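ok so heres the complex, three chains, lmk if somethin looks off
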Amino acid sequence: MPELPEAETIRRGLQKYLPGKTVAKVTVKERKLIRVPACEEFIKRLTGQAFTGTRRIGKIVILDLEKDSILVRLGMTGQLTFRDPKSGDTAFKTHPVTKLQTSSNPVPDKHTHIIAEHTDGTMLCYRDIRKFGKWLMYAKDELWQCPEIQALGPDPLSADFTCEKLCKSLARTSRSIKTALLDQSIVCGIGNIYADEILFACGISPLRQASSLTEDEISRIACQTPAILEASISRNGTTFSDYRDADGNPGENVGFLQVYGRSGSPCPSCGQILKREVVGGRGTSWCERCQH
DNA sequence: ACCTCGACCTGGGCGC
DNA sequence: TGCGCCCAGGTCGAGG
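and the predicted structre for the whole thing:
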């Protein structure tokens, strides 16, 4: 479920604590999560290095070290949290919509698969119920050449994301616009939730063939995509920003989704009952009256 | 070359 | 109450 806004929220949370922390000990309980390099080498290289900062591209959270960088793909259920055992343990709480952790300092549980303990006793914890996540480590100066990043299209919050590029990409695919928006090589960071939200905001049916979109429609997508993602970052920021005492305020964020997960309910714009159908293998909600 | 689909996982919700 | 079935969606390899 973590899409770009959730990855960015997590990154901002970590950015407050991680820089300057030196890794003293690494525990990997689920070896398959470490993809590059081999698990033993990963642990060896990570141990002793200090974190220098964080970055993000699409849905990928990047943890920079002195010499290397770690790519974290959160998959469906990945959660990256900073923990300070000295400030007391709390139970896990998750956001009802995003399924992201909202409590600070959770006790590591059976789903906490990777733990990096720092020299000052704090730790970075990776929890992933379904284990779809992936960790990869590359030398810092080779990071941008790695296949996982090379495969990505422009990030919607970067200057690379332009209407012109989007027009070109969409023109050469026969797939539906919904499927195209989920293709990380066309634009990176959009997942199922925001694909539906963006198409609703643009008044475009998810069933439309991508190559049939007019320049005006594509410019709407180019405009709405960053706006919706930014708005969501600011809202998740409300829920998660205060990492220390955030304890999940469901009412605050539940209302922000216009169509996703609302099939069977009235369209927030016209009142027509929202439709639901599987498009490109994904559950998709939209308004047949507002979206053409 | 492009596209679709199922597998990977687990927990939660629902029906019987 | 409890069991089993199905659903959720990001990514990737297999197959069309």
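quick notes: Chain A is about 30% helix and 20% strand. thats all i got rn
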